[in-house]
From TrEMBL:
Gene source species: Thermoanaerobacter thermohydrosulfuricus WC1
Stated name of the protein: Putative membrane protein
Bilayer-spanning residue ranges: 6-27, 39-57, 63-81, 88-106
Presence of keyword Membrane: yes
One Pfam short name: AzlD
Record's keyword terms, sorted: Membrane, Transmembrane, Transmembrane helix
Domain of life: Bacteria
Length: 107
């Protein structure tokens, strides 16, 4: 490994770590109002939705609501498991199992 590579890795580490660390470090020093805390509780759900919905509903840049959409049909039991369990592990397992089973049934 050359010096340029090591400097690049350290630089990439700093560029990605500092913007993530500074807000967390700064927010631990102050008490946030309850309204801000309530608002921030929705951020993970919003980010997850923004990541998942295009995968589930869009194919080749177009809306894909078809009976051959394995992602859509495997998302249904996954969302139900997430709603009732309120855990992380169970919906992940349900999603993987339902995707594998439905991919053999549908295709």
């Amino acid at each position: 490994m050359g010096t340029k590579f090591i400097i690049s890795v350290i630089g990439m580490f700093l560029v990605t770590y500092i913007p993530r660390f500074m807000p967390v470090y700064g927010l631990t020093k102050i008490e946030l109002p309850q309204a801000v805390k309530s608002f921030l509780e929705y951020v993970p759900v919003a980010v997850l939705s923004a990541l998942l919905f295009p995968v589930i509903f869009i194919k080749d840049g177009k809306l894909f609501l078809d009976l051959s959409n394995v992602y859509l049909f495997s998302a249904i039991p996954t969302f139900i498991a997430a709603y009732f369990t309120r855990k992380l592990f169970t919906p992940v397992v349900v999603g993987i199992v339902s995707y594998v089973v439905l991919s053999y049934i549908i295709k």
